[in-house]
Amino acid sequence: LPSQTITGNFASVIHGLNANHLTDQVIQRSKRMILDTLGVGLLGTSTEVCHKVTRYSKIYSSDLSSTIWGHLDFRLPPLYAAFVNGVAVHSMDFDDTWHPATHPSGAVLPAVIALSEAFPQKKKISGLDLLLAFNVGIEVQGRLLRFSSEARNIPKRY
């Protein structure tokens, strides 16, 4: 029997990632993905679906708050800010994709930014920490897709 479960091994790999694993090429590609996702997200703030989730989310408040993209005067708890911004990114359906079909940045970047904004001022994370968190999120998503037999069958179904 293996000494560690698949889940335990997966968690160990992800937990072991650090900024030293970010090559120059990964950093440059990540910056491009982030810039693209922010642009698509800002465009998406003008869609009807984004307006609906923004209106719905106004009922939530918290001491911790994160920015709703395109609204300087409107902040939400990180969970809801990530949701609204994620809807904005994907509402135009121009966000990045890979095979098997998924939209990695639209799911990861809004959460990473919302959480980073919620840190107390004295514990703010660096840009390199944000890039690492973004890449860990992308890595988790990619590995979960590799584990999924359903994801491998998506191209055959469409």
TrEMBL record:
GO-annotated molecular function: aconitate decarboxylase activity
Pfam families recorded: MmgE_PrpD_N
GO CC annotations, alphabetized: mitochondrion
Superkingdom of the source species: Eukaryota
Domain MmgE/PrpD N-terminal: 9-152
Gene Ontology terms describing biological process: defense response
PANTHER family according to UniProt: 2-METHYLCITRATE DEHYDRATASE-RELATED, CIS-ACONITATE DECARBOXYLASE
Similarity comment text for this entry: Belongs to the PrpD family.
Name the UniProt record assigns to this protein: IRG1 decarboxylase
Originating species: Xiphorhynchus elegans
Organism ancestry: Eukaryota, Metazoa, Chordata, Craniata, Vertebrata
